[in-house]
Amino acid sequence: xxxxxxxxxxxxxxxxxxxxxxxxxxxxxxxxxxxxxxxxxxxxxxxxxxxxxxxxxxxxxxxxxxxxxxxxxxxxxxxxxxxxxxxxxxxxxxxxxxxxxxxxxxxxxxxxxxxxxxxxxxxxxxxxxxxxxxxxxxxxxxxxxxxxxxxxxxxxxxxxxxxxxxxxxxxxxxxxxxxxxxxxxxxxxxxxxxxxxxxxxxxxxxxxxxxxxxxxxxxxxxxxxxxxxxxxxxxxxxxxxxxxxxxxxxxxxxxxxxxxxxxxxxxxxxxxxxxxxxxxxxxxxxxxxxxxxxxxxxxxxxxxxxxxxxxxxx
Amino acid sequence: xxxxxxxxxxxxxxxxxxxxxxxxxxxxxxxxxxxxxxxxxxxxxxxxxxxxxxxxxxxxxxxxxxxxxxxxxxxxxxxxxxxxxxxxxxxxxxxxxxxxxxxxxxxxxxxxxxxxxxxxxxxxxxxxxxxxxxxxxxxxxxxxxxxxxxxxxxxxxxxxxxxxxxxxxxxxxxxxxxxxxxxxxxxxxxxxxxxxxxxxxxxxxxxxxxxxxxxxxxxxxxxxxxxxxxxxxxxxxxxxxxxxxxxxxxxxxxxxxxxxxxxxxxxxxxxxxxxxxxxxxxxxxxxxxxxxxxxxxxxxxxxxxxxxxxxxxxxxx
Lengths: 314, 317
Prior knowledge:
The structure holds two protein chains of two kinds. The two termini of chain A are 21 Å apart. The longest helix of chain A has 33 residues, at 2-34. Chain A is built from 13 helices and four strands. In chain A, 76% of the residues lie in helices and 3% in strands. A two-stranded antiparallel sheet of chain A has the order 1-4. A two-stranded antiparallel ribbon of chain A has the order 2-3. Chain B is mostly helical. Chain B has one domain (16-316): ABC transporter involved in vitamin B12 uptake, BtuC, CATH 1.10.3470. In chain B, strands 1-2 form a two-stranded antiparallel sheet. The longest helix of chain B is centred in the first third of the chain and has 32 residues, at 2-33. Chain B is globular, with a radius of gyration of 20 Å. The two termini of chain B are 19 Å apart. Chains A and B meet through helix 5, helix 11 and helix 13 of A and helix 5, helix 11 and helix 13 of B. Chain A: It is a multi-pass membrane protein. Chain A: It is found in: Cell membrane. Chain A: The chain crosses the membrane at residues 20-41, 47-65, 72-89, 95-116, 123-141, 161-181, 208-230, 242-261, 268-287, 293-310. Chain A: It comes from Lentzea aerocolonigenes (Lechevalieria aerocolonigenes).
């Protein structure tokens, strides 16, 4: 009996760890067989360009979730970054981008301060910025959409490096950086320790507050980068719609990718695959002319199924 | 010694009644500064606007006291309105019960998944946020179809009828709040809600029906969100498809402002009602200051939420 039980347990464990990869492969095979024009360069470009901003946000979210937190403010930070860009574009694209990233850094550090030093629960701490941040972005922009004409800034959204769109290259590099950060640095080890057991981490003398503030700051900066890239692609600053509901997409991708909401574990490659999976699901549903309503319900089912498989048993 | 006690008592009063004190101050100042604030018309409008949110936040209060969270209420609110508007062609009873049954059923499934499979409330209700929106789009021809309610139907009366100028939804919300307070403080179910959120492991060991309690609160939250949607549809005379985006966050914010702890085990219905009052008075005042556009509302709400949670945290030390 033990042999069968062990075998079942091993199989469940394997599915928990690798379910997202299996799902991506299955979905790709399905599309190769049944979707017209799937295996074209143009299609891959479109899919990757659409997935890049979500991936960048999801990377930061994965780190935050690894500390047993959550950051609801990422969409609002994207909107703030979008609102900042036209204000400073006159001084050159580099200045505008740096200002936007600075705002993201400040927002993230503020979240981290509330969570680490004041001791507010992550959901509430970041909820305040979610509620207020987009309003602030709209106040800054006077509630208007601003068309952007700076060619150097717009090139960020249209140009290629070695045949790959710039935003995709940036997302890829960031994914590698975050993977190295979690797996190869002391900071990464401390992050996982804080998420696994905060009390033990404190008692072990880890700089818990510094790690938490660092993680939320990284998440804020990544959200701002995503907002800058999405703005350049849109060729307009649109704080009303920029990053709307992005927090939900990012959390979904992270959780589907196998990072547990209970913290103590960060799966970067899983997060990348989670973003790819959700993007593929959406693309598949659209290409087969399923309406938005059905698409949303199927996404809901996928989220529940993924979390059900990955859940920790008591 | 007695000074220490007095300070402690004062801190406790401030902590528990902070939102109430803030509300009284806000109302008093607004009354003096803005001549139109105190007018009967404005107060009626204020109460009516608050009543829909109060009904949703009532369910959220129960959920949060069990240590959970319900992100699906915004979508269920919109879905309830659309179902009520669609159902109104078959009469009053269908218009009222259809949204309650469907939204209640979705809430029941939320509770079932959370209680029986050990999945996080956050993610389960996030999925049903998507699902309910999808269902709404499916029955409204992808959002293109807004069902109208016949203006002379009895159902419209439910949303637009008044007593002394005060709309029926205000009385419905008030009655539900009283009922909710009694259930929370005077019944076994209420005790189980507190026990589940306070210390779940101990509650299980003490024989508290934790799973049933969780299923109960999520079912209640879904049903109330559906009811709020039905009342809104009756008031607007149509099932508007685009409402309710982000309403779950408003509901969470007012519950937290009202002093209910997100970690569970503590909270009051009265606090939630006061939280609703505060947010609505702030919005109303910003509308009175004609030069500020509505974007300031969310900035002020966000700052206010922040101040409240920071104060709560500091006072609890």
